[in-house]
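Q: Convert this sequence to structure tokens.
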Amino acid sequence: MKNQELQGKWDQVKGFAKEFWGELTGDDLDFIAGQRERLIGQLEEKYGMSREEAEKQVEDFEQGL
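A:
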């Protein structure tokens, strides 16, 4: 899924994102606003993930949509 697709569907997938990553709050999701890089950064920060792990999880999430 390309960044534009994620942004376009963001309102639809916020709930799924919150289920997938329970540590993300509504404010976090509003800040991310469908931007892939912001999502990766929030995962790194909230979960202490490496960039590679965060990117992998985002890819897995995108494929599950």
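The chain has a mean pLDDT of 89.
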